[in-house]
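We modelled the chain as a single entity of 82 amino acids. Its sequence is:
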Amino acid sequence: MSTHAAFNDGGRPGTYANGTASEKIDYILLSPPLFAGVKQGGIFRMGVWGGKNGDIFPHYPEVTKTGEAASDHAAIWAEVDL
């Protein structure tokens, strides 16, 4: 999915922990016809704590420390025209 022109990683290609390139471990695999139907995609990080102070990327205000994060993996998503 990250190879698609409509995919926006927000400048951080990884989906785990702090989102560095070496932390790119979650994927959406699509057949060629589904890949052709992708309208947009990205990484949703609002439930993840980023970095020592949580300030690497925006998160929900209720998440005030790493133990309150929904996960250490960000959600990867795609909108596909079926």
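As a brief sanity check on the tokenised model: Residues 32-36 form the longest helix (5 residues). Residues 7-80 form one domain.
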